[in-house]
Amino acid sequence: MTRVVWFQDYNPLSFGGGAQLTDRAYITEGLKQAYDIIILTPELQNQIILTKDDFLVYSNTAMFDPAKLAAAPNKYAVFHHDWVQSRCKWRLYFPMSEKCMADCPHAPIWKPVLEKAVLNIFLSPLHYRLVKEYFGDSVGPYVLAPSVVNPDHFFDHKKPGRKGTCSLNGLITFKGRAQQLEYAKQHSDESITFGGDNDRPQEPLPPNCKFVGPVAAVNLPKFYIEFEWFNELPDTPQPMNRTAIEARLCGLKVRTNALLGAASWPWFTSGVDVIAQKMRDAPGEFWKGVESVL
Amino acid sequence: MGIFSVDPTYKLVLPDKTEIDAGPPVPIYPGVSEDYGENIVEEHYQHFQAELLWLIGDAWALSRIFDLAKQDRIRLVLQPPVDFMEPFPQYLLDRLSTAFKIVPWVQDGYDRLAKAGLKNLANPIPLGINCELWKPRDRTKFPDTMRDLGFGLDTFNIAIVAANQMGRKAWEQTFRAIRIVREQRPDIPLRLYIHTQSNIADGWDMTALLNHYGIADITNQPDPYSIITGQFSEYQIMLIHALADVIVNAGLEGFGHSTIQAQAVGTPVIGLNAAATPELVKSGILVPVYSDLLTPALLHKVEPHPMHIADALIKIRETPRKEFAKGVQFVKERFDWPIVLEKWRKLFREVDAEFERRCIKSVRYPPKPSERALELAKQVTIVE
Question: Residue A62 and residue A147: Cα distance in Å, rounded?
Fold first, then answer.
């Protein structure tokens, strides 16, 4: 069986960022299917010898040299977690400005990598649509693979007495802080609890808002099930945002907008059981996509 | 160890009661266990949310900083001394090429690095000097300092203010030159003050070297503990230059601060006619290159001959000091801090604009969402 070499800035098996959690789910499924998978982080570049038969997955590779990635003689797939996986500081924050779309100084660095990819992997239909708009014909064959959330961990406890609204990381600027606070001001009778990060903690919040700080991953279900509503109100497009899926799986109603990648999946508005099944199926679908180009 | 700040109300009071504003507070980050702090520089960079690392340093002595710059984990504006001759070793050019900008100190450095193929060069910016402090002084008003330096009003007072390094600063050649003058011109009452660490790893044992050339009896050195703990103020360093009849700085220099310091206070300087020094000497004598050597870092160094330094010393002894007065204005017009700082401001404004154009400023400067994005944000979806 073809060996799969998974390029990642950080080891998905030991690092808990969103991209790494998603990769962990897909790598785990690959191992179950008996794929021979090697994780290659930047510090291992000179220690792992690639062969021409290896299939490469470039996933979250901002710390790798794009020119070297493009020059690899191997077949490879690009797993898009962000908008531009090059040196742009705004990999996660795509303002869709005129400059971004027409004159991005980073796009030419990454374009050659995309042009040679035999497969592109996107987190959502919205993600694909905007990257396609951004890079045009450089984006070839693709599959969609959502951030995977474990439905055995996140499920509807049907806890009675839920009330109020919550948000996770909603006070981060690039996750839509301005929209969240605007909503809070316009709904001053609604109690809103913010968990996660807050990149301007010194700024006072509206009186109906409360910030409770980071919530450990293991405690997230307990956090969600106290609330009736989940707000995800970005003002720049989000490739996916797993938190909206987590909240849905925990039975919360979700208030969001057209910039949320997760909400661009047709099944996002389905019942919890459908979403849970999509989560269970996603890793298998991912490897079917890979298999088709091996 | 914590991070220290300079007290914002701190004033530097000079012995003549002049106050110098120490400027706004600046966080001072500690080094750890390694000379150049390379082992912690990235962490400091992130903690400070730096946009760039501005470094004066020897490229041959650093390594990790260039690795970080190559990986774009730091952006480097480097001012390296070009105190070596061609051919430049390839490893050095590779390191320098990782910097966002290389800022030579003088035109010589610019020209030679450009010739070697570097494309990331900025216009040269020299070291600066505070010309309010560094100005000619009347030696008769400083009898105590004259005595401490071993200088007399009628003696020929030579000073060297330089690092104690073998293969640099021409210590050995200068001491031999002084011995030659002493032998050939016993009528010249020589005095020497050397401001350096007298005994340091990889350097000379200065006392042994002075004794070797038979000039220890006319030489004064500072207290080693005082110098190693940095107890000499800039004012005192200025006086050393101002009260001497000549400053010898005859090694191969990428800049050579002492060269402009001497001229700022009206003291002639003896320098080497190579690298940066010819651009910096208006009042003094340039001695020719005589020999060369290759260091273990593959750097070509050149050195003067003691005889040439001896000739220069005698010539300066026989020339009235007022004939070397042009150096004061020369330094003031080129190296006074306001002039130098404006050059840095201009460079950093250009660098900032380049960061902006290339969208590589840090997350402290998030762009605003476009109108199109804000329109999409208004399309609210409710999922129940």
Answer: 19
pLDDT digits (tens, 9 = 90+) for B318-352: 999 999 999 999 999 999 999 999 999 999 999 99
Using a CB-CB cut-off of 8 Å, the residues of chain B touching A234 are: 377
Beta-carbon separation of B383 and A269 below 8 A? yes
The model's pTM is 0.73
Cβ contact, residue pair A258, B376, below 8 Å: yes
Q: In what order do the strands lie in the sheet with B219-220?
A: B219-220, B190-195, B156-161, B246-249, B269-272, B284-287
Q: Are B116 and B324 in contact (CB under 8 A)?
A: no
Answer yes or no: do B359 and A88 touch at CB < 8 A.
yes
Q: So what's the pLDDT on residue A89?
A: 64
What single string gives the DSSP state of each residue in A86-130? Answer: SS-TTSS-----HHHHHH-SSHHHHHHHHHH-SEEEESSHHHHHH
Which of A96, A181, A232 to mutate: most B Cβ within 10 Å? A96
8 Å CB contact of B377 and A97: no
Using an 8 Å CB-CB cutoff, list chain A residues near B383. Answer: 248, 253-256, 263, 268-269
**A238 in Cβ contact with A251 (< 8 Å):** no
Q: Which of A63, A255, A258 sits opposite B379 (nearest CB)?
A: A258
* A95 interfacial to chain B (CB closer than 8 Å): yes
Is the minimum CB–CB distance between A107 and chain B shorter than 8 Å? no
Strand stretches in chain B, DSSP E: 4-5, 11-13, 19-21, 27-28, 53-56, 76-79, 101-102, 156-161, 190-195, 219-220, 246-249, 269-272, 284-287, 289-294, 300-304, 380-383
Closest-CA distance, A128 to chain B, in angstroms, reads 16
pLDDT tens-digit map of B187-222: 999 999 999 999 888 899 999 999 999 999 999 999
Q: Which of A85-94, A239-248, B87-96 has the lowest mean pLDDT?
A: A85-94
Contact A162/B at CB under 8 A: no
Most confident of B45-54, B229-238, B279-288: B279-288
